[in-house]
Write a structure and sequence with these properties.
globular
Length: 239
């Protein structure tokens, strides 16, 4: 696929992902009768379903990253060149902001309004570290051993992580920035974005190292097996 097609897929996919996150949050808050648990349940289920379908749709074109830390992971693993990183991240940021703007207009809200939800406590930053660590772990493990299951596993993990983490698992720098631009159910105060993004990058970095060791690439395993076979054959010939 040409770079322009890949960037369009990343921007469009990220836009629809943020539309699903923010839009379902607005709808859930309006229909749940101030029941935050019910609103969160509806929001997370819609987010997971949207993420699954978007990965299945756009993965053949761009890899369906929709997330800067996933793009960095792909580059670190040697699956894409470093010079594509700025373009991918820019497309994700533009798409995320466009998706939020589109949803706000749909619901009759200002195109952009600074969120007021305070998310600055250390437990929330630790939560984002854990959420992103787990997300990268799922991506690495599934993509290397059960690639066909990756879209479903990632979506299921995000739904679960929204409930078992205190931060409700943003786990995505582009989404975090965009969610600061909508003062709705899924928002985050702009002043707290930097801390969340730092925690996400740290969590992703640690996970990349741990799960790369835990799930070595098939090529590495094949090379080891081939070396062992050659050694065994040499020993047999010598004897």
């Amino acid at each position: 696929m040409t770079l322009s097609r890949r960037l369009a897929a990343e921007a469009l996919g990220t836009a629809f992902l943020l539309a699903a996150i923010v839009g379902s949050g607005i709808m859930a808050a309006r229909l749940s009768g101030a029941n935050e648990g019910l609103a969160l349940l509806a929001n997370t289920l819609v987010t997971g379903l949207a993420l699954m379908t978007l990965i299945l749709t756009f993965a053949p074109v761009s890899g369906a990253h929709f997330n800067p830390v996933v793009t960095l992971l792909e580059v670190w693993q040697g699956k894409m060149p470093w010079h594509d990183v700025p373009s991918y991240i820019a497309a994700q940021l533009i798409g995320a902001c466009a998706g939020v703007a589109a949803v706000d207009v749909m619901f009759g809200l200002p195109v952009y309004s600074a969120a007021t939800q305070v998310k600055s406590d250390w437990p929330l930053l630790w939560s984002e570290f854990i959420a992103t660590f787990g997300l990268i772990g799922v991506i690495v493990g599934c993509s290397r051993r059960r690639p066909a299951a990756t879209p479903f596993a990632v979506a299921a993990y995000i739904v679960a992580a929204c409930w078992f983490t205190s931060s409700s698992s943003f786990a995505n720098p582009a989404a975090t920035l965009a969610r600061a631009m909508s003062n709705t159910f899924t928002g985050i105060r702009p002043a707290d974005v930097l801390g969340f993004v730092a925690a996400q990058i740290m969590g992703a970095s640690c996970a990349a190292v741990v799960f790369d060791w835990m799930f070595p690439l098939a090529g590495k395993l094949d090379l080891q097996a081939e070396s062992a076979a050659v050694a065994d054959a040499g020993n047999e010939m010598a004897s």
